[in-house]
Amino acid sequence: MKKRIVLLPGDGIGKEVMHSAKEVLTAIAEEYNHTFSFENHEIGGAAIDQYGTPLPETTVDACKQADAVLLGAVGGPKWDNNPSHLRPERGLLGIRKALDLYANLRPIKGFKNLLHASPLKEEIVSGSDLLIVRELTGGIYFGTPSERRDNGESVVDTLAYTRREIERIVDKAFQAAQGRRGKLTSVDKANVLESSKMWREIVEEKKAQYPEVSVEHVLVDAAAMKLITNPASFDVVVTENMFGDILSDEASVLTGSLGMLPSASLNESGVGLYEPVHGSAPDIAGKGLANPVAMILSAALMLRYSFELEDEAKIIEDAVQSVLDAGYHTADLQIPNGRQVGTEEMTKLIVDYIRTLNASKCIASCYY
Ligand code: NAD
């Protein structure tokens, strides 16, 4: 398979973890006969320094022509006092908009060796492996009017969705559930909101197209409780923009480390932007301490959702799992009796696993 990948390392540890993702993808390409071409472009603070804007046209054009985009992270103290049009985050918001990314996917998985770092008891978080599918471009964050009225004495925000906007995110979630354990939880507030009633109707209509997926409807307040009392009961969760914003942050702390969490944002043509949930971590940038796993798992999501290379995605995820199982970890994690390594060594361990796995498969199929 031939694919063109745009890399936007951004700022701080973004550059370091992007290097790791590229090494892993290069190993996958070489071991499994794919051709991935990589093109680097600037975004965020690095783009402000070089081009005077957080999102140069050249970056947007390259992303629009790419098969997928990997993004590191943007921001840092150097640009904190810039005027708002020259803030690094403007680059991030701009590229999400330019690519029309309407679906945000956040997988959250409890790795066995790291469960002790969860704020929840190990027996509660154990077995958690869920995917939150959040609508990203509609709902109350974008509805108009959104304004102060009556000389500031009243205020209005608008929660608006079209049928089409709900259908496409619900379809995406059903499809994701088909590739996982076949359970979909649709989260809404249908006891109060008209938009939620329509959301629930659409999920019910769509159900017939995906008979192998079981569906449950949960109110958002109950979902927030269930996420901390029984997170392992979820497989795929689909919800509208604001509910998803809140629930995905709640869910992200379950596993105890920001350095482990990947994300994907997709548009209708399957092109996606893949990025770790964490930021540019200026406090550790340039020290070789960054945990590259969130970025590497984001690359795995790219293989799964943009390139439909499920086996290769799984190989990367297995590689991460097996390196952690062997006790290796970066400074942000603690594994009892484990061995702390830096960004480069962690990356090398993951790459070595991928290469060894393929070599052993070859030996098995060639000689036995
Ligand atoms: P952050 O995620 O960068 O860091 C929070 C803490 O987690 C820090 O102590 C950091 O060292 C640690 N951390 C984060 N990722 C890590 C990793 N991969 N390995 C090891 N440790 C890791 O959040 P912050 O400190 O609030 O923000 C720093 C900058 O990043 C700010 O400029 C902020 O605007 C920006 N930011 C960018 C994004 C993005 O690009 N998507 C997201 C969040 C924050």
From TrEMBL:
NAD(+) binds at residues 76-89, 279-291. Substrate binds at residues 96, 106, 134, 221. Pathway: Amino-acid biosynthesis; L-leucine biosynthesis; L-leucine from 3-methyl-2-oxobutanoate: step 3/4. Its main location: cytoplasm. It is an enzyme of class 1 (oxidoreductase). Its cofactor is Mn(2+); Mg(2+). The keyword Cytoplasm applies. Residues 4-350 form the Isopropylmalate dehydrogenase-like domain. Homodimer. GO terms for molecular function: 3-isopropylmalate dehydrogenase activity; magnesium ion binding; NAD binding. Keywords: Amino-acid biosynthesis, Branched-chain amino acid biosynthesis, Cytoplasm, Leucine biosynthesis, Magnesium, Manganese, Metal-binding, NAD, Oxidoreductase. This is 3-isopropylmalate dehydrogenase. Catalyzes the oxidation of 3-carboxy-2-hydroxy-4-methylpentanoate (3-isopropylmalate) to 3-carboxy-4-methyl-2-oxopentanoate. The product decarboxylates to 4-methyl-2 oxopentanoate. Its EC number is 1.1.1.85. GO terms for cellular component: cytosol. The record marks 141, 189 as: Important for catalysis. It is found in: Cytoplasm. The keyword Cytoplasm applies. It comes from the Bacteria. Mg(2+) binds at residues 221, 245, 249. Belongs to the isocitrate and isopropylmalate dehydrogenases family. LeuB type 1 subfamily. InterPro entries: IsoCit/isopropylmalate_DH_CS, IsoPropMal-DH-like_dom, Isopropylmalate_DH. GO terms for biological process: L-leucine biosynthetic process. Pfam families: Iso_dh (PF00180).
